[in-house]
Design brief:
Elements (H helix, E strand, L loop, with lengths): L1 H12 L1 E5 L2 E4 H32 L4 H26 L4 H15 L4 H16 L7 E4 L9 E7 L3 E6 L4 E5 H6 L2 E3 L7 E9 L5 H13 L11 E7 L4 E9 L5 H18 L46 H7 L8 H10 L1 E5 L4 E3 L7 E7 L1 E6 L4 E7 L3 E2 L1 H6 L6 E4 L3 E7 H10 L1 H11 L3 H13 L12 H13 L3
Length: about 475
């Protein structure tokens, strides 16, 4: 038995190769292989611990977690290999001589790999592209208009999953040397455009109301920046508009466009406004018969310029604003601008919209649902407002705190015009300010109460204060909204 063990030890210790002047036995080779395996297992365990626990605890976002984890993995591998080689008694100087000789021979063949390796370091350290980023290539590039989400960044390649769920393996050098659109680079919102074509004799204000109201009902559409309806031009038998909306994630573009197209077509058709689609001209050698469907300039166009709202769930903002003494004088063009600048807000039941004493920075129109106005200090109910009612405009105009609290009593949709939007309207349409001044000057008693309230709260500056209520009101509105 001893003879067999001696033979095994002799076999394991017998030099099989030499690095420079240093012999290497099979035992050394086995130790190196075992050390490498242990190093890789340890590196993966530490990397997973950092990525799935430590970095989450530290609040590091997913893209950065992946980059840091990759760097930690390769650092542990490199450090572990060096320690393993030294532990087995290898002379690293002799190894460097061999590596240098090999490097001259294979260097030319590994140029692209080294290029990808360096590019991987640039991506991981520079973080210009991170995991979970949505990227897109240009139309003139090799991956023409390819879009997808980054799933993994290694030192040699990056894995991207397309919208079709296909995984694309991209060399890192391509991402560093070629232009790439990174939709998540600065975490900003992304714009989506939808083309709409309608007849020339429709009610354009009604069209604007329906499009914007429908758009705000889509959950993926942001309210700030607010959607815009751009009038692109007038053609032979239709008018062309472009709806611009903003979304958080560009990967949701197709989903958002799909839902908006269906919703817009439905609500516009319900209100007598039909979208026009491009006609396709077909040529026949012997056109001896009529087409079963004739497409002409008058098809699919609403002939009633005063189309009525036929959807029972829709409230006409034009009618509501027309009843307000502050906005009743506005022209159709001015009303359209006001409706576009405002935004829609959805609230569930029993949600506090604002409390007594909060800043009066918006006014509201109830599109559906109902709200309760109450004073919580004395537990007093003041009123219940329903669809079509307006509230909060005086607090916005004078910049006074809320005198009561408001909460929803059922699911509610609101049209909201905030301070910045109202300021835009006042600056662009100076005649609105004059109408507001004239209307408020007729309510001297209420103005006196508001002025007293603001004085008691110390919210009136010496420059603004004036015993003449009308002068005070003009100074205050001009100061609040920066109008001359």
């Amino acid at each position: 038995m001893k003879t067999i063990l001696d033979a095994i030890y002799f076999f394991l210790d017998y030099p099989v190769i030499s690095l420079g002047k240093q012999p290497i036995s099979l035992n050394t080779v086995l130790q190196i292989i075992l050390s490498f395996i242990i190093t890789i297992i340890l590196a993966r365990a530490i990397t997973l611990l950092c990525k799935n626990w430590l970095f989450k605890k530290l609040g590091i976002e997913s893209g950065h977690r992946e980059a840091f984890s990759t760097l930690i993995f390769y650092f542990i591998i490199t450090f572990g290999i060096i320690i393993s080689l030294q532990a087995t008694g290898l002379n690293l100087q002799s190894l460097a001589v061999v590596a240098g000789g090999l490097g001259i021979g294979v260097g030319f063949g590994l140029q692209s790999i080294i290029k990808d390796f360096i590019s991987g370091l640039i991506l991981l350290l520079g973080r210009s592209i991170k995991v979970d980023d949505f990227i897109q290539f240009g139309s003139r590039q090799e991956f023409s208009n390819l879009q997808g989400t980054v799933q993994k960044i290694s030192l040699l390649f990056t894995v991207m999953k397309t919208k079709d769920a296909a995984s694309v393996i991209i060399p890192n050098s391509y991402l560093v040397t070629s232009p790439v659109i990174n939709w998540n680079y600065e975490k900003t919102e992304h714009r989506v455009k939808i083309s709409l074509k309608v007849g020339k004799n429709i009610d354009f204000l009604l069209f604007t109301e329906i499009v914007l109201d429908t758009t705000h009902q889509e959950s993926s559409v942001k309210t700030n920046p607010s959607p815009k309806l751009i009038f692109q031009g007038i053609h032979d038998y239709y008018c062309e508009f472009t709806l611009q909306v903003w979304i958080n994630e560009m990967k949701d573009e197709d989903f958002t466009i799909n839902r908006l197209n269906y919703a817009l077509e439905y609500y516009l058709r319900k209100n007598g406004i039909n979208l026009i689609f491009p006609t396709q001209h077909l040529a026949f050698t012997e056109p001896n018969f009529d087409l079963p469907i004739s497409l002409n300039k008058n098809n699919n166009i609403s002939t009633n310029p005063q189309s009525k709202i036929v959807d029972s769930h829709y409230i006409s903002l034009r009618d509501i604003l027309g009843k307000s003494p502050y906005f009743a004088h506005l022209t159709t063009l001015e009303l359209r601008e006001l409706i576009e600048i405002g935004y829609r807000q959805k609230l569930d039941k029993d949600v506090i919209l604002f409390n007594e004493g909060d800043a009066g920075d918006s006014f509201y129109i109830i599109l559906s649902g109902a709200v309760e106005i109450f004073v919580p200090k004395i537990n007093k109910h003041l009123a219940t407002l329903k669809a079509g009612d307006m509230f909060g405009e005086l607090a916005l105009i004078l910049g006074i705190p809320r005198t009561a609290s408001v909460k929803t009593v059922e699911k509610t949709r609101l049209f909201v015009l905030d301070k910045s939007g109202f300021q835009t309207i006042l600056q662009q349409q100076s005649n609105i300010a004059e109408v507001i001044f004239e209307e408020l000057s007729q309510h001297q008693e209420e103005l006196a109460q508001r002025q007293k309230q603001l004085r008691e709260m110390g919210l009136i500056s010496e420059e603004e204060d004036d015993v003449n209520l009308v002068n005070w009101m003009k100074k205050r509105v001009s100061k609040l909204f920066s109008i001359g």
